[in-house]
Amino acid sequence: MAEDKIPAAPRPSVWRSIKLVAWSFLGIRSNSEYQQDLAKVNPMHVVGVGIVGVLLLVVGLITLVNWVVAK
Prior knowledge:
By secondary structure, the chain is mostly helical.
């Protein structure tokens, strides 16, 4: 008797989480791709990448402002 194999769900990927957060920061994400990403990412990866992204944005803006004001 042959067993029906159910395809395994893809492993959550940090790279996919980075892409998800980057597109979310820009605000340009189609709904269908968003739904696909939700099924393929780990929520903890998204939270971690989001926090790192916000920190990089804030540090980058502070650096830019200090550079402009110093001139």
